[in-house]
Automatic annotation (TrEMBL), chain A:
InterPro entries: NADH_UbQ/plastoQ_OxRdtase_su6, Nuo/plastoQ_OxRdtase_6_NuoJ
GO molecular function, one term: quinone binding
Organism: Subtercola boreus
Compartment(s) of residence: Cell membrane
Keyword Membrane tagged: yes
Annotated Pfam families: Oxidored_q3
Class of this enzyme: translocase
Protein name: NADH-quinone oxidoreductase subunit J
Sequence ranges of Basic and acidic residues compositional bias: 172-183
Catalytic activity field: a quinone + NADH + 5 H(+)(in) = a quinol + NAD(+) + 4 H(+)(out)
E.C. code: 7.1.1.-
From TrEMBL, chain B:
Superkingdom: Bacteria
InterPro entries named among the record's database cross-references: NADH_UbQ_OxRdtase_su1/FPO (IPR001694)
Name the UniProt record assigns to this protein: NADH-quinone oxidoreductase subunit H
Gene Ontology cellular component terms for the protein in this record: plasma membrane
UniProt source species: Subtercola boreus
TrEMBL record, chain C:
Swiss-Prot/TrEMBL keywords: Cell membrane, Membrane, NAD, Quinone, Translocase, Transmembrane, Transmembrane helix, Transport
Main location: membrane
GO molecular function: NADH dehydrogenase (quinone) (non-electrogenic) activity; quinone binding
Protein name: NADH-quinone oxidoreductase subunit K
Membrane topology reported for the UniProt record: Multi-pass membrane protein
Membrane spanning stretches: 33-52, 61-83
EC numbers on record: 7.1.1.-
């Protein structure tokens, strides 16, 4: 009973949050509506006994949305709440396509004869996930880590307007008489 | 959760509020001592402030996003209570999550959102600058914190706080994970945007996030900061100080006692550090503290590997 | 809470996300749409795992989905930054160089 109520409340939050993202006209509200949707989905995943994945989803998405809001404000360059304008294109076709996709997916979900449940969950699912990552499925994680590392580097190369050499010039270890880097580091930090 | 636990859950926010008030009073006393004022006046500061704010009328700037603003001012205390719910009191815990350590981390990330929203909602430039300051500071402390939190988890071989607590029957984790504890303690202070990490509320931006807050909202935020401190200190007990273990007194009392001692430590140490600018903090945190934390993790992993478990 | 219900919710999230990704002009909003779609995938993955085959190592797939989401975010922001810097705009309509 409690599970059912919780499920429907979370469903409402997840879907309403998702819709709100594209309806509200405030950048902060759109971003945090998406955060609400993610938190609801994270809670549902916890209800599906995937504690670690669910809580990690909540953690990651809250963090991501906090950063996303900053990018939104930075790039939009204006406040749609003050200057209402429509930042969309192909609205009608998009709606038709989205509804169509939902109908096809829903039909598939209802009509596919889902197989019976096989296998049984481990007693400690978090531990079994850890064992899988460090054991039979280690290759997956070993593949993901260089991908993530490459992403960090690629994203930095793209986004950083000035690299190491723009920061200090050719002579990275050049020092002034007072021991400070010369020319002075244009990107100040705690270490130089 | 049994029926009795449901009744006790109601007490959790009350206990958090009382401990927050005590911390705020202690802070007031220390402040009074530094300023050479009467200690008694310092003790009464938080209560006077509460009475004043409860009577103060709310003011809102035109164009403020009141919905997000109010949610975030109430949310800080709620995040603190949500953290406290998973802290074990001896063998008893309100919410025995198998991933309690990750839960704590998720709740402190919630604070990122709340502090930024507090800055955003007010529709004041100074507040928004405060919100941005908190985010950049959060980016700096979160990476070392995430690694630091894994140290007790590796030591115990579990993310469940009850297991982490029982793994410390012989030696407390703080003894062989001092770096992890220091990073954790610093991060707790930073969650609350307090002490050396208070630039989001700095006087140089006329109070930053707090600037436009008034009345009950301001009370919730200032109280919530102390609640976050209390929750963080309380969380260090099962992570680093052996949980409810202790002679004679019941486990629950020991947890509260140890929490108070950690809080006292934070209150004292706070006065020894100058305020850290977020842009400076990022480089220090990532270039110096992250490698130190990784070294700590390596030490813990080797000890656990050689010893076949916690010390 | 049955497999069908959870999958339907996931499909709804996916469809809403698809609408956003197709209709929005601002790059960050497009990314939000994609995020919402991945959100649906994540939920569907969790449901399929629990209701069909709750084997220990099936959870790894969901970690892969989460990692994919991270990569999408990081690269999306990086590209948005580059586009913004070079054209002072964050609209998808102004970045159609690859349009045939």
């Amino acid at each position: 009973m409690i599970t059912a109520i919780l499920f429907w409340v979370l469903t409402a939050l997840a879907v309403a949050g998702g819709i709100a993202v594209f309806v509200v006209n405030s950048m902060a509200r759109a971003t945090y509506a998406l955060a609400v949707s993610f938190v609801a989905v994270g809670a549902m995943i916890v209800m599906l006994h995937l504690d670690y994945i669910g809580v990690i989803t909540i953690l990651m998405m809250l963090m991501e949305m906090a950063v996303m809001a900053v990018f939104m404000v930075m790039f939009m360059g204006m406040n749609p709440a003050l200057m209402p304008m429509d930042m969309t294109h192909n609205k009608r076709r998009s709606v038709i396509l989205a509804v169509l996709v939902f109908v096809v997916l829903a039909a598939a979900i209802v009509f596919i004869p889902w197989p019976n449940r096989t296998g049984s969950p481990a007693d400690d699912l978090t531990k079994s996930l850890g064992d899988a990552i460090m054991g039979s499925k280690m290759l997956v994680m070993l593949t993901i880590s260089p991908v993530l590392f490459a992403t960090i580097i690629a994203a930095l190369v793209l986004a950083n307007p000035k690299g190491r050499y723009d920061r200090y010039g050719d002579a990275l270890d050049r020092r002034d008489v007072d021991g400070h880097p010369d020319p002075d580091d244009p990107i100040p930090g705690g270490l130089g | 959760m049994s029926d009795g636990a449901f009744v006790l859950v109601v007490l959790v926010p009350v206990v958090v509020a009382v401990l927050s008030a005590v911390t705020a009073s202690a802070n007031g006393v220390l402040d009074a001592r530094t300023n050479g004022a009467q200690l008694r006046t310092g003790f009464a500061v938080p209560f006077q402030e509460t009475a004043r704010l409860l009577r103060q009328q709310r003011r809102t700037l035109p164009g403020a996003d009141s919905l997000l603003w109010r949610i975030s001012s109430a949310g800080i205390g709620i995040a603190a209570v949500l953290k406290v719910l998973v802290i074990p009191l001896g063998g008893f815990t309100f919410a025995d999550l198998p991933v309690g350590v990750v839960w704590f981390n998720a709740m402190d990330v919630l604070l990122w959102a709340l502090w930024w929203l507090l800055g955003w909602g007010a529709n004041s430039s100074w507040s928004l600058i405060g919100g941005y300051r908190f985010l950049s500071q959060a980016l700096a402390y979160e990476i070392p914190l995430m690694f630091a939190l894994t140290a007790p988890a590796i030591g115990a071989g579990s993310l469940r706080l009850l297991t982490v607590q029982t793994a410390q029957t012989h030696v407390w984790f703080v003894v062989w994970m001092p770096v992890a504890f220091l990073v954790f303690a610093a991060s707790v202070v930073a969650f609350a945007s307090w002490g050396p990490f208070q630039t989001a509320l700095g006087a140089d931006i006329t109070g930053g996030v707090l600037l436009e807050l008034s009345g009950i909202d301001r009370l919730l935020v200032t109280g919530g900061r102390y609640a976050v401190l209390v929750a963080g200190a309380g969380f260090s007990v099962p992570l680093f100080f052996g949980g409810g273990a202790g002679p004679i007194l019941p486990a629950g009392v020991w947890v509260v006692l140890k929490t108070c001692l950690v809080l006292a430590g934070l209150l004292t140490v706070r006065r020894l550090f100058p305020t850290v600018r977020p842009d400076r903090l990022a480089e220090i945190a990532w270039v110096i503290v992250v490698p130190l934390t990784l070294l700590q993790l390596a030490v813990v992993a080797v000890i656990v590997g050689v010893n076949g478990g916690a010390l | 809470m049955t497999l069908h219900l959870v999958l339907l919710v996931a499909a709804a999230l996916f469809a809403v996300g698809l609408y956003g990704a197709l209709s929005q002009q601002v790059v960050v909003m497009v990314m939000m749409g994609i995020e919402l779609m991945i959100n649906g995938v994540l939920l569907a993955g969790g449901a399929l795992w629990w209701f069909l085959s709750p084997t220990p190592d099936g959870q790894t797939v969901l970690l892969v989905v989460l990692a994919a989401m991270t990569v999408e975010m990081a690269m999306g922001f990086a590209v948005a930054t580059v586009v913004h810097r070079s054209r002072k705009s964050d609209m998808t309509d102004s970045a159609t160089d690859l349009h045939g």
